[in-house]
Amino acid sequence: MKDERIIQRLGIVKRNNLIIIFSLALLSLIYKLIFVQAIVAMLTEIFVLIVVIITFIINAIIKSKEELVDERVYQKILRIYNYGFNITVGLGVIIYFVSSLFYVSNTIVSPNLFVNSAIFICLLLSFTNFRKNGMSFNYKFIENCNKQYYFGVIKRVLYLLAYTIIVGLVVFILSIIFTVVANVEVLLLSILISFITFAIQYFLFSIYEKLHYDESVEMDEGKLRYITRKVLYIFVLITLFRFYALLIDSLWSFSHLENNFLHKYALILELLELGVKIQGIDFAVLSLISGILIYKSIIRINLKFLKYKKLYLIAIWVSFVFGILNWVYRLGVTMLGRIYEFETFIKIVTYVRYLNFTFLFISIFVGALIYIFMLLNNLKVRNTYLALLIFQTLGVMVTVGIIPVFGNLNQDPTIHSVVFNCINVFGLAILNYIVIYKLTRAYEIKEFTEELL
Amino acid sequence: MNLKMKAARVEHGLSQAELAKKIGVSRQTIILIEQGKFNPSLNLCISVCKQLDRTLNDLFWEDLKIER
């Protein structure tokens, strides 16, 4: 398919992506100039900045040579953005891992510490950029049937694997030729981890995109959905991650207990726990997206909720900020332990814990206010919402220790407490989903069309 | 909105996806042309006209009231 619109928009998307990459590289360079001060560590940023500047200069020259920037010239300019982007990303990644050979420390996580989150954020921004320009990430095969679509996605993952092998080979060959400071095996492993992370994230995005595309076709054909499959999909992803995080957290805590069979797996669990901490930001972003998608579903279906949209948006952003702060705290808590003395450290941890509990109680209080609002307005969903509220309150009370079911959960984890937490995570997710489903379903299509008219 | 093109397509019993496939563009491109959010090239306009048995004037010429 040689779609002139796609060729044109692709150039615009890649130009915007170049601007994003340029900004990130500039910020990273400033950070490294202040804190790292090693030229080898800055090679990727310097390369990216040079290529992006050259791309924009070439286009400025082309524009200045032409009297009138018509369609032909415009296409030429967009083609150059395309080349610029491919060179920046294609070679930038190789330079990043090659430069890691000469300065990185010998730990498994350092090359991947923030790279994977950066990959996720870039992927997300790029995805948004595509959507804004009326394009799909997998525009080449999005219109195919499911089987052909996922075959196309797997083919792309295989191309990515071939690229990863090339990067790995370059790193390996250079490590033989030159004297390097980094542990090559660890670096190769980190390249593999980056590939796996990117492949999984790309695959998850592709599933979302296909659901979105199919739903937009259904909408065009006049089939109206209440809560869409793509919202459910993000819900499932977040719930599974919460469950995984909970499981790793619990196993990690168990591994610290003496005479526990998990004790010998402590190192692996430590790494998995670190992975959960790092991935926390990705899921804070995903929660924000699901919140916005639900918001869109509500205003599309239930016009009466339009006047409360500001409140709902504030709630989404507050919980997002809280999620990010929690993520920063979880990442930084080990560092705090090293910086401060034990007593001060315990004080800080206790203070943050109280802050967390306060926030939880405020959210329950707000929940109670919402229930009163539902009662006054006689909304059908109020009973399910009450069940959700009671379930959430009980969960908080058990966790805090107001209801002493399992003793002090924070010190001695037991199998019962893990099972309870699992039920809590899944129960909350299911009840939440039912509430949103009922809320968006409150209007029958007939009423909806009447209101529109 | 290019209602003339939409009407011609419906008259031919074609969905947006079917017309897109016949011309060799994406469905999204057809949607955007019909919504007036994308200006197609002359070649693409001709392809659309051929598929819908219409002339360029029929589908893409807008009657503008010129104020003097």
Average pLDDT of chain B, to the nearest integer?
83
Low-confidence stretches of chain A: 106-112, 442-453
How much helicity do the residues of chain A have?
over 70%
**What proportion strand of chain B?**
under 5%
List keywords for this structure.
heterodimer; A: 453 residues; mainly alpha; B: 68 residues
General description of the model:
The complex is a heterodimer of chains A (453) and B (68). Chain A has 453 residues and is mainly alpha-helical. Chain A has a domain of 225 residues. Chain A is 78% helix and 0% strand. The radius of gyration of chain A is 25 Å and the shape is globular. In chain B, helix 2 crosses helix 3. Chains A and B meet through helix 1 of A and helix 2 and helix 3 of B.
Brief account:
The complex is a heterodimer of chains A (453) and B (68). Chain A is mostly helical and 453 residues long.
Question: How is the secondary structure organized here?
Answer:
The complex is a heterodimer of chains A (453) and B (68).
Chain A: H1 4-35, H2 43-65, H3 71-100, H4 115-132, H5 146-177, H6 184-220, H7 229-255, H8 266-301, H9 309-339, H10 342-376, H11 382-400, H12 415-441, H13 445-452
Helix pairs in contact in A: 1-2, 1-3, 1-4, 2-3, 3-5, 4-6, 4-8, 5-6, 6-7, 7-8, 7-12, 8-9, 8-12, 10-11, 11-12
Chain B: H1 3-11, H2 16-23, H3 27-34, H4 42-52, H5 56-60
